[in-house]
Amino acid sequence: MIPILDKLDGAGFYSLEVWGGATFDVAIRYLREDPWERLRVIRERVRRTKLQMLLRGQNLVGYRHYPDDVVEKFVEVAYRNGIDIFRIFDALNDVRNLVTSIRKARSVGAIVQGTICYTVSPVHNLEYYMRFAEELVALEVDMVTIKDMAGILDPYTAYALVRELKSRFKIPVDVHTHSTSGMAVATYVKAVEAGADLIDTAISPMAFGSAQPGIQTVYYSLREGDRPSIDLSVIEEVSEYLESVLAQKYSKYITARSYLPDHGVLIHQIPGGMISNLVAQLRELKAEDRLKEVLKEVPRVRADLGWPPLVTPLSQIVGTQAVFNVLLGRYKAIIKEVMDYVAGYYGRPPGPINPELRERVLKNVPEVTTRPADLLKPELGRCYEAIRELEVPVTDENALTYCLFPEVAAEFFKEVYGEYIRRSRELEVETLINYAQ
């Protein structure tokens, strides 16, 4: 990333999304890189353009709800390390899971994007989205983002959504979609015509497929008066650089299909990242040939669960249950996460849950009617104690990394700080000897 940061900073973007989502987990789990250091390095080199992150509300960048003390500290430290804009969403569009992170981000002076997770179902209509937007606006967010993680937002629905948001709330609107279904460029054109203030794009060759559409294509698809002030010559330089990086390091992961639309997403609504998870699960179970059955089962599970949007962590939960249903029989085994979801531990479902499934789960798991995070005890202090015991530098960043992913963090710290720990112990022994003498 480093060689092109100065060019990206001078291209004329409103902001660059550089952090959050799965990037935190991937950095420590697979790359053995400190995600906080990555953010600081980017911030040092990107001075003119705002940096933003994707924050999963009470889930932060993890896969479960964290207590309020961890959420507040994470937002504070992320802002301190360079994040200007927090795009905050909840997988269920349950505003109770957004209150803590939105209020904290506002209090530290960050720009807050209150986010609507877009999906299609019998319960998700224009009025549903306007009711949720009203709840976001009541929290005094700076703008509303329509987050279409599966690429299923069609052009005319985008036009209607944006026009209604602008008309009712007089607030800036950002539209985020993916190219998965092939509709993204047309969707952006109609969103801009309706008054969208911001749209999210990628840069070829990292564009299209299940990513965002390429900025060059979107630029020329817009009316001349609607085009942003972007330096396309800089974009071309960045594209050439990315081409060379792909050719040198990632060619084995790229196929012709990587950039082709998948019209099946309009039926199963599975985001690109979730497909790869399903394939990995089936491969591990030596059942890759059952993928088509799983893709058909996913919408059925989603309907049983009250039509949750398929976004992390619910996309993984619905997908895993669909795999179990195909391989073992429908709900012969109910995974723990589905039981917790049905009982209300993830938040309020958008629609009614299958009564038989609900009755079966609630025989074993107590139902939650309060805000899920109200059930959680503070954890931050314990995380500081844990890193002291691990003998790594006691910083807010290290404590938060441990809070989010304790087991992965312990392995990460062992590898990254191994020499530091060894030298600390040597100094401790030297100190004890000197004291004895």
Percent helix: 40-55%
Bulk shape = globular
Q: Strand order within the widest sheet? A: 1-2-3-4-5-6-7
Please give the radius of gyration in angstroms: 23 Å
Largest β sheet strand count, sense and barrel closure: 7 strands, parallel
Could you spell the SSE succession in H and E letters?
HEHHEHEHEHEHEHEHHHHHHHHHHHH
Mean pLDDT: 93
Structural class comes to alpha/beta
N- to C-terminal distance: 52 Å
Low-confidence stretches: none
Q: Give the strand content.
A: 5-15%
Output the number of helix runs: 20
Number of beta-strand segments:
7
What do these coordinates show?
- With 437 residues, this protein is of the alpha/beta class.
- The protein is 52% helix and 8% strand.
- The chain is built from 20 helices and seven strands.
- The chain has helices at 2-9, 23-31, 35-45, 68-80, 99-108, 126-138, 155-169, 184-193, 215-221, 232-250, 265-268, 272-284, 291-304, 314-328, 336-343, 355-362, 380-390, 396-404, 406-416, 418-436; strands at residues 15-20, 50-55, 85-88, 111-117, 143-147, 173-176, 198-199.
- The protein has a seven-stranded parallel β-sheet with strand order 1-2-3-4-5-6-7.
- β4, α6 (126-138) and β5 (143-147) form a beta-alpha-beta unit.
- α12 packs parallel to α14 and α17 packs across α18.
- The longest helix has 19 residues, at 232-250.
- The radius of gyration is 23 Å and the shape is globular.
- The chain starts with a helix and ends with a helix.
- The mean pLDDT is 93.
